[in-house]
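lol forgot to send this yesterday, sorry. C-alpha cells for the thing we talked abt
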C-alpha cells in the first residue's frame, strides 16, 4: 500500500495540515518542524497522491465516514442527515463500511490520509488507530460513543430513556423480562440501554445474544429464547431486532401484546406501521448525522479547536406492542 500523508504526519509528530503546508510551501511552518516533515518524507519515500496534500487542507473538501454497515434504516437516516449538511457546505463524502472487511486498521488509516476529517461510528475503528489519529491532529467526530479526549462525540440519550421504558413495562404488571441485544460493548449505545433497564428491573431481566442488530438476528434470537422459556416482555436493543421478535412470536402462535410484550428503540418508519405498532424510544437519527457534519466542518475549518461532547434528547413513544393502555380498554 502507498505511503499516505497521514503516515508522514505520524512519523514527524505533526498534524496533517502541517505536512500539507510544508509540502506546498504556503503558510507558516517553523524551520525545525519543516526539517522534521521533510526528513519523514524522505525516510518513507512519500509521493503525494492525486488527492494527497490538497485534501489534507480541505482544498477538495472531502470528508470520510467509517461505519460498521450501510444497511438498515438507522445508518441510512444518519447518513442522510450528514449528506444533506455536507452538500450545503460544499463537501464530498468518502464512505468506508467495515462489514465483512479484513485489515480494517489499514483501511481506516488509508482513508484518513485522503480526507480532511473523519466521522466514525462507535468503536468501528480500532482504539490504537483512533489514538494515532488524535495524536496527529486529524479532525474527528464520533457518533454513538462515550466522550473521548481530543475528538467530538455525539450520541442520543440512552440510560434515562431505558429506565423510563422499564418503568412503563412494570406499570403493565410484567415480572419477567429479556433484553435482546448482547454481546454488550462497554460504553456503546446498546450497553447503555441495557444498563438503564437493568437498573430498574434488576434480576428480573436477562441479556440474550443477538450477534448483530438486524431483523434476521432478532428473529433467530427470539425464536431460540421463546422455545425454551417465556418471558412476559422482550426489550429489544433496536427496532429491527424488535421487528424480528414480532415475526418469531407470530411463527410460534403468540399474540402480541396478549401473550408477549415487545419494545424497540430508534422509531424507524417500520415501527409505526408494524402490527401491532411498536412501542419504542425515538432518537433523532437524521439530526445526529446533520450535527456531526456541522461539527466536523467546524473542526476542519478551525472555527473551533476545543472538542464538544453532545447528547441529544430521546423520547418514549407508547404504542400497542407493550400492552393494553387505559384509553384502549373496552368500556
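and heres what i got for the seq, position by position
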Amino acid at each position: 500500500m502507498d505511503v499516505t500523508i497521514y503516515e508522514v504526519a505520524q512519523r514527524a509528530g505533526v498534524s496533517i495540515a502541517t505536512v500539507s503546508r510544508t509540502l506546498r510551501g504556503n503558510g507558516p511552518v517553523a524551520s525545525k518542524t519543516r526539517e522534521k516533515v521533510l526528513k519523514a518524507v524522505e525516510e518513507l519515500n512519500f509521493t503525494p497522491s492525486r488527492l494527497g496534500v490538497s485534501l489534507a487542507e480541505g482544498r477538495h473538501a472531502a470528508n470520510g465516514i467509517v461505519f460498521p454497515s450501510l444497511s438498515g434504516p438507522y445508518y441510512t437516516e444518519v447518513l442522510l442527515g450528514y449528506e444533506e449538511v455536507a452538500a450545503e457546505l460544499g463537501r464530498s463524502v468518502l464512505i468506508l463500511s467495515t462489514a465483512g472487511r479484513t485489515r480494517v486498521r489499514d483501511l481506516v488509516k488509508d482513508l484518513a490520509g485522503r480526507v480532511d476529517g473523519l466521522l466514525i461510528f462507535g468503536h468501528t475503528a480500532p482504539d490504537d488507530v483512533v489514538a494515532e489519529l488524535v495524536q496527529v491532529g486529524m479532525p474527528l467526530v464520533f457518533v454513538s460513543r462515550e466522550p473521548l479526549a481530543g475528538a467530538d462525540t455525539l450520541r442520543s440519550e440512552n440510560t434515562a430513556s431505558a429506565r423510563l421504558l422499564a418503568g412503563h413495562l412494570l406499570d403493565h404488571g410484567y415480572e419477567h423480562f429479556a433484553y435482546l441485544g448482547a454481546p454488550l460493548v462497554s460504553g456503546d449505545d446498546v450497553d447503555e440501554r441495557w444498563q438503564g433497564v437493568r437498573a430498574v428491573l434488576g434480576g428480573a431481566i436477562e441479556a440474550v445474544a443477538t450477534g448483530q442488530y438486524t431483523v434476521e438476528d432478532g428473529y433467530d434470537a427470539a425464536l431460540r429464547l421463546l422455545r425454551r422459556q417465556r418471558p412476559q416482555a422482550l426489550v429489544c436493543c433496536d427496532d429491527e431486532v424488535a421487528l424480528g421478535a414480532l415475526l418469531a412470536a407470530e411463527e410460534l402462535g403468540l399474540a402480541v401484546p396478549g401473550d408477549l410484550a415487545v419494545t424497540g428503540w430508534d422509531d424507524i418508519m417500520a415501527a409505526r406501521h408494524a402490527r401491532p405498532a411498536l412501542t419504542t424510544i425515538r432518537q433523532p437519527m437524521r439530526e445526529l448525522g446533520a450535527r456531526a457534519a456541522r461539527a466536523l466542518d467546524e473542526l476542519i475549518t478551525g472555527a473551533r479547536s476545543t472538542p464538544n461532547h453532545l447528547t441529544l434528547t430521546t423520547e418514549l413513544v407508547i404504542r400497542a406492542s407493550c400492552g393494553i393502555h387505559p384509553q384502549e380498554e373496552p368500556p
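Residues 285-301 form the longest helix (17 residues). anyway ping me if u want another try
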